[in-house]
Disease resistance RPP13-like protein 1
Amino acid sequence: MFVAEAVGSSFLGVLIDKLIASPLLEYARRKKVDTTLGEWRRTLTHIEAVLHDAENKQIREKAVKVWLDDLKSLAYDIEDVVDEFDTEAKQRSLTEGAQASTSKVRKLIPTYGALDPRALSFNKKMGEKIKKITRELDAIAKRRLDLPLREGVGGVSFGMEERLQTTSLVDESRIHGRDADKEKIVELMLSDEATGGDRVSVFSIVGMGGIGKTTLAQIIYNDGKVENHFETRAWVCVSDDFDVVGITKKILESFTKRQCESKTLELLQEKLKNEMKEKRFFLVLDDLWNENPNHWDVLQAPFYVGAQGSVVLVTTRNENVASIMRTMPSYQLGQLTDEQCWLLFSQQAFKNLNSDACQNLESIGRKIAKKCKGLPLVVKTLAGLLRSKQDNTAWNEVLNNEIWDFPNEQNSILPALNLSYYYLPTTLKRCFAYCSIFPKDYVFEREKLVLLWMAEGFLDGFKRGETVEEFGWKCFDNLLSRSFFQRYHNSDSQFVMHDLIHDLAQFISEKFCFRLEGEQQNQISKEIRHSSYIWHPFKVFKEAKSFLDIYSLRTFLALPHYSDPLPNFHLSKEVSHCLLSTLRCLRVLSLTYYDIKELPHSIENLKHLRYLDLSHTPIRTLPESIIALFNLQTLMLSECKYLVDLPTKMGRLINLRHLKIDGTKLERMPMEMSRMKNLRTLTTFVLGKHTGSRVGELSGLSHLSGTLAIFKLQNVADARDALESNIKGKECLNRLELNWEDDNAIAGDSHDAASVLEKLQPHSNLKELSIGCYYGAKFPSWLGEPSFINMVHLQLSNCKNCASLPPLGQLRSLQNLSIVKNDVLQKVGQEFYGNGPSSFKPFGSLQTLVFKEISVWEEWDCFGVEGGEFPRLNELRIESCPKLKGDLPKHLPVLTSLVILECGQLACQLPEAPSIQKLNLKECDEVVLRSVVHLPSITELEVSNICSIQVELPAILLKLTSLRKLAIKECQSLSSLPEMGLPPMLETLGIEKCHILEALPEGMTQNNTSLQSLYIEDCDSLTSLPIISSLKSLEIKRSGKVELPLPEETTHNYYPWLTDLEIRGSCDSLTSFPLAFFTKLENLEFWNCENLESFYIPDGLRNMDLTSLRRIEVVDCPNLVSFPQGGLPASNLRGLWIRNCKKLKSLPQRMHTLLSSLESLFIDDCPEIVSFPEGGLPTNLSSLTIWNCYKLMESRKEWGLQTLPSLRELTIAGSREEGLESFSEEWLLLPSTLFSLRILSFPDLKSLDNLGLQNLTSLERLVIGSCVKLKSFPKQGLPSSLSVLDIRNCPLLKKRCQRDKGKEWRKIAHIPSIRMHGEVIINS
């Protein structure tokens, strides 16, 4: 079914409707200004008659496009005027009452008899705007006559679909022509060549844009064989911004499925290594453009800790890109055949048509499919356009449209994509074109984008009976169904645009939408209406001033850089005040992730503002003037962790629809919240003790949807107030959180809490419920009622006084149940399961069950139904229940993970669980441990602090033949491992804090050739390790007596596959480390090895090259004297970190030639190092840190840093003993490539002269710390490129840098961001 809409209907039609519907129309007639408005309407109507033809011809005729853009620009101005009139009229009407509104509204129209100064000013401004618009509209109407535009050129209606079928998964049945491609690539990935060759194989799919590379990668990623073959998978969209830090962060987050706040590449790569270590992983890097091999080398450095057979799959349009990365031949993806195009086209275009219609349209459809040139993206967009159109006229119009024949030399937009846009309904055109403000491959959320569309006024066409948000979701789903949007990695909430689609949006809206990225401020046109901006670390918003003369700007949208989404981007109060005072047409303002603590009161000037996003900022308060934002629809304050109060009169924002305040520190809600009757989203409601809104004020907010969390329910004075809130009537809520916060509750309070909770019964539509810190003695009667058929998630946390559980087994859809912290629950009995007919099976849908910290729980009365009372339970966790005895459920048929921690009295058999894979036991009875042998399917076992481990371990290792990972921790009785050996498939073995364990037997791997990872920690009696030739990773920590097995002859290799070796505070007998015996080593770490004296390479192996070695860390090794004689032959080494090695006298020799790939060198507290080696440092070096190496500092004249063309970061730090007062003139040649310079800990330094700082034209960050005698900057000044100046513990310098009055201020006044002793100073 389609919503009827003529093709000719346009953005002007929407504007004309607004003019007609204006509340000023009647008054305009009375005051004779209707003549002007009438002329506008007539002129616009005449122009609208040629719009269809103009939109068609703009693609090839530049004059038409210029005219059309000018018309759109003027339409924006007219809309602003109408909106301002409309706002004033509604506000006056609201303030003075409906009866007075007609007379008072006269002041809104330009008249010259009004005496009110405000009215005079308003009238004058509006009069000038109206005259200007009239002149420009007349000019545009005349220019129309000079263009070859025809009136009445119409077309077929392609309206919006009312109902759309959507899916969150890749539906392979909808993909044609790629089966053979998929099978070939999967076969190659899983072949012996891939799994037996390089540790990590890199495959690439190469093909032109729109050909289906991403889709092919997606179906490979979701293939069952691939999923089963790899232990872990990750998908990352890279795009053309090859930011190594950002991409590494995205890879890490994709593997871990959680956000990471680390910022430095070193920390991120370390975490990524830990995540990948000894795992066979599959990583897709989608849409690569990088042609710099050095960038790829840095990115892939952590990959090689993965298990043999790991795979990276790259998609790219560029064969050069593929050649840099691949270890296997590229797979060239060809275009679809005409028949494959037709099958894909017909499947989507004929989705809802009957067979007769399909037959009639087939011949036309085949011709259209042939014109798509074998590109699936083009096929899908046109098929989405024609879906369910049953008449030949529409199909023939698309087939014969002249856009197919337009040359596209001037732009890269494919004709078929232009066609798809051309036939979109007006609303969809505006919504789609707006998306060009996002960067390519930007991941956006449906909910947020719809709120932006709503704020911009694109969704005014919604029908009675539906909300504007529902209409927005419909628009979004229509664009999705037509392939203008694509799901991001099968997500239901995140989406992206294909590059070619993004190019189309950018072409359409290039005059009005602008993305500020990098140094583009000179390109900003005064005509733009919508702008986004992406900031980078250490960049300050100098560009803000570039917007100050764009008075008509409607959108100012912050998009955090994905490599650093933390607030470190400063915006001064002066700049923000200037912006808000100037950009008075703003409808959307986002300052998310900015380091702003307050908003200026001038926010009240933004009368048009509909959307304000201050989320993830340290803002502490909002100005009271914010209540003047009459039109505000969306206010985002999520994760404003310092926000404690909202404006007292915030209830006056009666048009507010979405208020997100989760993650704040609010102490109460403002009064009169009940006035905000349009609210659809209210994430949090906090009850003050004696002030603020009562919970009963929620009664008037009947449209609430999504999530509502109510905090401090102990402050409800009367349970009748809870009933008044009418939570049960809020049928659109999906998630409800009910929280108390009073640890000093008394008996009477317990009764009150129970009464309040009883009256907060939600609607049966609720899907998720959380009850926290509830101190009532019993749960409410409604909890567990079968009527809650939609409940899938339930958490009962810290309900410490409830001695019994509600009948939760009756919740037929419940999937996740968590019961945490209870001080009185002694028995989980039959009441937990509920009552039902004889066929009733409790917990029929439950997948995860958690019991945690239930201090007096003793008995679990299992239901005992046939097939088990938990037929679908996948995960069971019982933690810190020290008195639990008796039985566990007998049969859990699909259980895959079981965790029992600190349940010392539990002495029963483990459940029968034929599907179990992971088992974790800590402080359990020997009976529990003994029953492990009856679970042969276990692949991962962790045992902690169980006394009987020595007795039971032989049987366990014998029976668990599928075991792949084994960890034994804190087992004080473990003195040895069984001689019989390890299970044949075991890959990882970890032993921690087993203090009497003396040896690992030589025969423990007699039946095992799979062990790849061995981890030993805090085993202070352990002396010997067996030779395990299959090892790829070996870590030994705080086990001083362990002797590392080393061969006596150079022909023997005990470690042919070892890639990672880490020794910390262990192996006391090791004095010299033979690097040559570790030919595959990639990462080497020695920490706190007091007896280590040297690294060496035997004479017979001097010519070898340790090509696999990527990183070396040597820390706290006080007796280390030397590296191998002749140098360290590691041509691929990227990082060398040496710290606190007091006796080390020199760095590795011939570094400039042997370590040609070295990028990062860190030397700290090595006082005996006199100089850099002969020949200097490697030219590839990008980061150098020299800290507390006074002898090396004395030879600084010979460093030759100016010869390092890649150096970006330099840190030089002295010590307390350092006597350096100034840098000699010979040392002023720092490389001009420096981005960041840190000068630290020179207590006698008085001058920075002679450093040549003014010549560092790329320097953006300068840090000076602990230079207590320094009091001035160089006479020549600091470079103009500086964005950040950070001064720490320099008291004399601080005093002379006081703003506007310090003697040094003029030298630094040009720097946008200055931090002085922790205090941020911002220049406007």
About this structure: The two ends are 55 Å apart (CA to CA). The chain has a mean pLDDT of 84. Residues 62-96 form the longest helix (35 residues).
